[in-house]
Amino acid sequence: MELKGADLYEVTCAAALAQLVDSLVNATPEPPSPPPPPPAPRPRSEPRAEEKPRRTEAAVRNVPAVPREAPRTASVAATATALRQDSVPAAPDGVSVVCGLVSELTGRVVREDVSFSDAGLTSFDMLRVIARLEAEAGPLPKSLLFEQETPRALAGWLQERFGPQMVGGLKSKKSPVAQLTGADRPTELLANGAAVVAKKRLPEHPELAALAAQLESRFAKEGGLPGRDIAPLLFLGSNGKGYLNFTERDGVLLAWSCAVSEQDFPVLVGEWTEWARENNLHPNLLSMLPLTEVAGVPFCSTPFGTVQRLHGIDKFSLEGGSMKRLRQRLHKFERSGTVEVKEYRLGTDSAVDMAIATLIDQWAARKAMVNPYVETVRKEVAQGIMADRHRVFLTYVDGEMLAAVVVTKIPSENGYLLDLEFFGDKMEDGGLDYTIIEIIKRLAAEGCELFSFGATLGVVVGTSSNPHPQVEQVLGDLRAAGLFRGDGNFQFKNKYRPENLPVYLCQPASASAADVLAVILLIANPTLGKQPQGQTESQPEASAPEHSKVLPLRVEETPAVVPPSTKPAPRPVPEAVPSDSPRQAELRSVGWNPLALPRMAGPFELVTDSWAERDEAAVADRSRELADRASAITRELSEQNTLPFEYVQAAPSGRAAEAALLRAIGSKRTIIQTNLFPSWTFNALDLGFRPVTVRTKAGSADVDLEHLGELLAAHRESAGLCCIELSPNATGGLPISLENARGISELTRKAGVPLVFDATRGLDNAWLLARAQGQQLWTVARELFSCADAITLSLPKTYGVAAGGLVATSHPALIRALRRRIADRGEEVGLAERRLLASALADREWIEEAVRTRVRHTEQLAERLRACGAPIRAAGGHAILLDAARLCGKGFTHPVPATLAWLYETAGVRAAPHLSAGFAPTEGCLRLAVPIGLSDGEVEQLAEALEGAFKGTERPADLLRVPDDGEGPAFYERRDHVPEDVAEDIEKGNAVKTAGENWAVVSQWQPQAVRRLIPHEGGQIEVFEAGQGAPVVFLHPFNIGLGFFAPQLRDLATTNRVIGVHAPGVGATTAAGDLSFAGLARTVLAAVRGLGVTERFVVAGASFGGLTALSVAHLYPEDVSGLVLLGSSHRVGNRRGDVNRLVVVAREDFDAVTNAGARLGTSREELEALLLRCESIDPRIGLRYLDQFASRPDLLEQAAKLKVPALIVHGVHDTVIKLEVAKLVHRTISGSRYVEIPTAGHFPSLTSPDEVNALISTFAKDVQAS
Questions:
Q1: What is the CATH number of domain 582-609+852-974?
Q2: Which residues of 677-700 are buried (b: 16+ CB within 10 A; e: fewer)?
């Protein structure tokens, strides 16, 4: 038999191969014999045999169905689990071999029992080692050196799986590191007129240099200094219309960039690929256009990274909520001193040149790994040599140079590339952003239109219809292991809101996944070749002829092959609706739940008032100020006099402080408490306490003293403490009166029960009392706090720190217990942090001003809200509680989530549900938490935004909670966007996530069918297939799975390879990134190609599936040989209640057939039962489809442009899609064949299978013959 390489990707030894073969031929497996010594690895230069995906009958019929829980490709988690199993101890010589190999590859000293990380190996060092091992052993887990973290463990693992001979063989072979250097390749002038030349040798060929210069000025995109080392070779096409920049090492090629028109791009790549084949080289190229075929060779295009571009920089602005964090970073940096950004021309002043070189040294010293090109750039800078297309900008703070940024002219466009950035040890946070903004401003003033941030590799921003499955898996494994991720770099650039364009790794479909590591290492660690006589590395263009000064001879384009006239559109947000505002689009993407958005996502963040969860400039400024105070004046918590207590103990957080105090309580486990903040409840339950709630007086936060006395008496024997929250969150921050606090103190002392105040917002409480009585804040605060035996504080909410909590007490027993735990277990907070907290506590002036201002801001907001009719339930010192039910009115199922979504949409305010802690008067509210540190201007902007919302005409829309697995944030859909029948099922709990019984149905009808799971876009596609021959691909109706096509899988499999693809959300298909018809078409193609189908195929779709089939045929005519539409249309119906449940649709349709006197092919009861067994849709994904359908997409225009044969089959009695619609589609598709089934309704393939199967079979034969 013959197998695809993909089938053997996870087969790592002879025993596993024997087991696979036995399963395929349905033989009884015999115990495997010991594996023979592994064969010698195939040299890199050996040509690869073409993999022909032919399938034997045994392979089709007897491969066991892959269970849903176990996809064929091993997951990273599963691999990691396997790696953790005990390995056979390595023989001593094996350990020494591994040590020597790793040292040779990385240049680092490694020892037998020292981890690779501790030995200083970077992620790319580890990739080098894995690539070398894979040359001997085949594909290996990319997390191998993390799991087997020492040379001894790695050697044992290798010997256990591959035998000692393999490990010994590592010693006998010279490691393939830099054996072949692309930069040293001799010039080749090919017979067809093409040329291969090292760019450092271009001056030897003036005619080629002149041609390259001309092509660069016309077509080249972003040019960057790193590219000259990454891609030192040039491939000039035979027609002289374009060139590729590429590199070579160990038989692997990587085309990094190009200069060519879109029209000539495929021809150029085809010639380069043919040259590679003739020389037994493996071509790979980075492209912003996915390639499917080059010169007749099938290609795969796997997402590999992104290029981020900012267009229209003259209109670039820092205004608006999306730029808030960037504004804050700039503001923060501006206050670090006198800041100045200057443009500098290298070579003007040798002292400045050396200062920049020193800056590069500082930058490099902080890096675990530095690409070799940095040293080249440093030499050029030190000598004052750099081409005119590169501009250098220097950032000074108080006269000291802190950063150097290089931007490079884009030859064929009016713009610049952010090329290189270096910054010194003293550079403050936000400095690089400040420099970039200044550069953008200056370029815009010069009339530039474009600013490119260049490429970031290792992130995925788009999808591909034809990724290489194994390459996609390897890249996913690398990202999961943290070895190939660009997240940080991507996020840094994304602050500027650029356009994110996908970059693909394009390779022949027969390429090996083993080349991926080689490609990454070619980029991360390029090999520098020897310079020609008379030319030094630090003189990149000195010896070039005058006319080549502008050539990119050693300064190459961005790592993406970009046909210049093409600007690929970014992948659309899947759930976007054209009419959405930006905030509506944000909300739709997270299920209308603003709490699922990132913190500080909108202009106004009122979810919490805790500085531990905030990121404003005020937080950073205060942290720096306190750090300076703590270093200038040493303060200890034991010396504090702000709180009226003898003993103060630091904790990592307020919750930790509460837990510390509860642990200090004796054996009595009852807590008499008010409606405390939820963290108290969690701690109490964790530590075995039983809370008992005391009543609060109506309309205030004061405790009902009579009820407190009753509870103290009732729990005389078990009460361990009484806990009262000052300015309690449950009431919205209303104050407890001083008289009430004294009364509580008196009652608890008489009962002998310690009194604890949660004084987190105690100063708010004290200020409200002090202001009313005309007293000083700290006088009232000390008297209030003194009523308690102990207090706890969560400092980030009031005291101007980002973390920390305190317990303060004068109670002897509590002090002893707290000190004993410290003596036993040590401090939970370090000395520096304790001193910082002491400095914060001592700064009474700052604290008082912050509290007074916060209370004033809260009152101002409440007053403005009341004036515009906002339903305020309560407003205290730190929060405003809004009555969501009153705002929404009657009939709302989820008033609080609906109001939260409305507030974010209309005002940009991210708020949160109020945690009432069982306090009935404030249940059903949402909370606007007002933090300290806001300026008057910020509060005015917030007030205006809130007024705009409440004075406007828009009101909250009710939401529908989408069923899920209970993990992660709640997900909603707008109630008015959901059909009545669907909404009713969800509200009644009938809509459960189900895969239906499709596989069971298909297995009954076609026992030889096989079930496959194809990895795709971070999820999977479920596919059923049976039979051999020309492939026919079936796409099912909207919420009916592939059991619907059971008759076709049974009967057509005798002559064809019948393939059924489950759409996103149906069956076990979870890949649901893009639900547009273009996205669904890509998913279908990925599934078919993932099965190894390389020839063209007929695609057949029923009902909604016909729309997807039409899209597949329109978008991929080179892949599709014919289209079959079964009871389908050209547009989506308006699902707003006008389509009923499947059971109703089936009943009405079958009624129409039988009432007309026609006979169903099978009993009506069996057909209805089969349809209901096959019903399947994930509720969350199903509701997302509705967002796509909202614009009523119409494919009639695509049908008119169709270039493949089409067969349209329609039931005469169809009650869902009328005959007139089918006839319109027939008239629109030129040359299509139209057939009516007189005995069928909407489901002809199910009710009249013999007729439909005969039509499809004949059609498939005809298109195959033609």
A1: 3.90.1150.10
A2: bebbbebbeeeebebebbebeeee
Quick one: average pLDDT of 362-380?
Answer: 79
Phi, psi of 143 (to 5 degrees): -95, 15
Neighbours of 340 (CB within 10 A): 12
Domain boundaries, the chain: 94-170, 188-304, 307-502, 582-609+852-974, 618-842, 993-1140+1179-1265
Q: Please state which CATH number belongs to domain 993-1140+1179-1265.
A: 3.40.50.1820
Cβ neighbours around 742 below 10 Å, total: 14
* 605 Cβ contact list (under 8 Å, min separation 6): 599, 614, 910
Which residue type, as a one-letter code, is found at position 975? Answer: R
- Secondary structure class of 1025 (helix, strand, coil): strand
pTM: 0.53
User: Other CB atoms closer than 10 Å to residue 444's CB: what's the count?
Assistant: 16
Q: Among 987, 961, 964, which residue's Cα sits nearest to residue 974?
A: 961
DSSP state of 884: H
With cut-offs at 50, 70 and 90, classify the pLDDT of residue 74: very low
Dihedral, CA of residue 1017, residue 1018, residue 1022 and residue 1028, to nearest 10: 50
pLDDT tens-digit readout, 916-938: 878 888 899 999 999 999 999 99
One-letter amino acid for residue 266 of the chain: P
Q: Please give the Cα distance from 555 to 844 (Å, whole number).
A: 59
Q: Which residues contact 332 (CB under 8 A, 6 or more apart)?
A: 428, 429, 430, 617, 620, 621
* CATH number attached to the domain at 307-502: 3.40.630.30
**What are the DSSP calls for 1145-1190, one per residue?**
HHHHHHHHHHHTT---SS-HHHHHHHHHHHB---HHHHHHHHHHHT
Residue whose C-alpha is closest to residue 808's, from 645, 641, 666: 645
Distance (Å) of CA 453 to CA 459, 499, 794: 15, 10, 42
Q: pLDDT per residue over 809-823, tens digit each?
A: 999 999 999 999 998
Give the model's pLDDT for residue 418: 93
Which residues are CB-neighbours of 1171 under 8 A, at least 6 positions away? 1040, 1044, 1142, 1146, 1243, 1246
User: What strands lie across the sheet with 647-651, from one edge to the other?
Assistant: 647-651, 805-809, 790-794, 755-758, 719-725, 670-673, 690-693
The secondary structure of residue 415, as a DSSP letter, is E
DSSP, collapsed to helix, strand or coil, labels residue 758 as strand
Give the CB-side neighbour count of residue 727, counting CA atoms within 13 A.
Answer: 26
CA–CA dist 649, 760 (Å, integer): 15
Q: What element of type H or E holds 794?
A: strand 790-794
CATH fit for domain 94-170, picks 1.10.10.10, 1.10.260.40, 1.10.1200.10, 3.40.50.720: 1.10.1200.10
Question: What dotted CATH number matches 618-842?
Answer: 3.40.640.10
Q: Are 733 and 878 in contact (CB under 8 A)?
A: yes
The structure tokens listed for 246 are: 């590429």
Residue-wise pLDDT tens digits, 327-364? 878 888 888 889 999 999 998 888 899 999 999 988 88
Assess contact for 105 and 129: CB atoms under 8 A: yes
Beta bridge partners of 758: 725, 792
- By the 10 Å C-beta count (0-12 exposed, 13-18 middle, 19+ buried), 952 is classed as exposed
- The sign one gets for the Cα dihedral 617, 618, 624, 625 is positive
Backbone angles phi, psi at 690, to 5 degrees: -120, 110
Element (H, E) at 822: helix 812-825
Question: In Å, what is the CA distance from 316 to each residue of 312, 449, 946?
Answer: 7, 10, 27
Burial per residue of 59-95, b for 16 or more beta-carbon CB atoms within 10 angstroms, e otherwise: bbbebeebeeeebebbebeebbeebeeebeebeeebb
The contacts of residue 1048 (CB under 8 Å, 6+ apart) are 1032, 1034, 1058, 1245, 1249, 1252, 1253, 1256
> Do residues 570 and 461 touch, judged by C-beta distance below 8 A?
yes
